[in-house]
Amino acid sequence: MLHLSLFDSKLLRNKFCIYFTAVIVLFSWPFTVAISGKEMTRYIKGLGAPLRDQPKISSKVLTKLSRGTKVLSKETKGLWEKVEVGENQGWLMRGQISDIPVGIKKSILSQKIRLQSSSGKRVRLRTFTAVVGVKGLVDKKGQKISPYKTDYLALEWLEKQPTDEENSVQFVTFSE
Amino acid sequence: MIRWLLMLLGFCTAAFSFTLQIHAHEFRLRANHIFWKNQEAGTEKEIDFGRGVAAKILGKYPIYKDEEKVNYVSQIGTGISAQLGRPELRYYFGILDTEDINGYAAPGGYIFVTTGALKLMRNEAQLAGVLAHELAHINQKHIVKQLNLQSTDRSMTSGIAQILGGATLSAKIALERLNDLAFKMLMEEGLSKKDEADADQKALEMLISTGYDPQSYLDYLSSLKPHLEQGQAKVLSKTHPTIDTRIKILSEFISKHELDSIQGKKNEKRFKQFMVSL
Q1: Gyration radius (Cα) of chain B, Å
Q2: pLDDT computed for residue B278 by the predictor
Q3: A82: distance to nearest CA of chain B, Å?
Q4: Whether the predicted pLDDT of A54 surpasses 80
Q5: CA-to-CA distance for B45 and B255, rounded, in angstroms?
Q6: In Å, how far is B7's CA from the nearest CA of chain A?
Q7: In terms of pLDDT, which residue wins out, A127 or A117?
Q8: pLDDT tens across A154-168, in order?
Q9: Which residue from A16, A161, A172 is facing B210, i.e. has the nearest CB?
């Protein structure tokens, strides 16, 4: 009944209909904005991401944002995104932000598997792939699964090399 | 009567709209939580998978163990990855002792550059560009996507977890076979042209973001040309689009985003100081 009466031509002239429409539009607007997702929460990926005044690399740095900081993305312009963070508004390069929260560093190197090698020597290796590398995974017919050689000792040497993110960031800021 | 009905309807719509907003927010939070849990489990599998591929790369080319040079390459790479890489990964930057000119990236954070490529480079910006190109392959999970390790929830890494997470022998065999496929992709078949163009563009963005000269990367690509003809970059020419195509795509990208006026640091002296005895 009500549905039909809404489309009644006399009712359309009624000022309450205008109020009604206004109420619907006003209350639905924030919902529409939320769904359209123009303003999205994003997260800083790197150590000390510079927030700039303008979408230009030569532009003034307003502040440096630390890894994991939540920012509200307002606008996109080429390689740049305009963000709001606290009282600051500025521009970040799109590679500096992530859609998903920043996770803690993952390492599988502490996971060790003990096994007896074919020569009878006990070895401790990291992860399954390393075990396969030494033992050589075979299928039911005894054929080796992979035809390619591996070098896990070289890989472990590389993994033991020291790195320091903050030092390295400092190292690449150097300019001759 | 109609007035009251209309007002009631108006309030109902408003209440409904607010309820939906709350639900949409809750839904997003919940979806984010599930996605995040999957992502965490997937990252470990991705590293395990990538380690296998990295070990195969090192099975083909010997590792170069000059600690000073490795440390230099690693500092440049880590300096970029700490700002623009995936924060959940620990990246490793190694040098392969071969005259072949190339760079490689295995999923999970393993990046290599050959001594052949280092000898061809003229400055630090070129090295940063090559490392950034490989970093982009890992950031964008190109290998994982190309191997179609995608699960039903469209999260690439949780797909790996589902496929390779099993403890059974068949799961292990599947992992080993996928390792071989990824290795073959790096050495013979190459990634898609789209992925290579994407990695080139992302590398340029990373160079700009870290203050390096973007033109140096294009210069490096041009300097590859004669070596491709001589066969010193056989793997690279087999697995990548032609240099002309790559430069054309990058030039279009540069003019589209008005990047031609950007001049960054090259750090030629520092690069030569570290690489002098190579």
Answers
A1: 23
A2: 87
A3: 15
A4: yes
A5: 40
A6: 7
A7: A127
A8: 999 999 999 999 999
A9: A172
Strand, helix or coil for residue A18 = helix
Q: Are A41 and A97 in contact (CB under 8 A)?
A: no
First CA to last CA across chain A, in angstroms? 80
Residue B258 burial (C-beta neighbours within 10 Å; 0-12, 13-18, 19+): exposed
Chain A to chain B, count of Cβ pairs less than 8 Å apart? 236
CA dist., res. A2 & res. A73, Å (int): 42
H helices of A9-77, in order, are 9-13, 15-36
Interface of B with A in 162-201 (CB under 8 A): 172-173, 175-177, 179-180, 183
Which residue stretches of chain B have pLDDT < 50?
151-153
Nearest to B84 among A27, A45, A163 (CB): A45
- pLDDT value at position A116? 41
Residue written as token pair 């880590």: B78
Q: At what angle do helices B243-256 and B193-209 cross, to 10 degrees?
A: 50
> Is pLDDT at A21 greater than 60 in this prediction?
yes
Q: Do residue B208 and residue A79 have CB atoms under 8 angstroms apart? A: yes
Ramachandran assignment for B59, one of left (phi > 0), alpha (psi -120 to 50 degrees), beta (any other): alpha
Structure tokens at B15: 């209440």
Given B36, B83, B176, which is nearest A100 (Cβ)?
Answer: B36
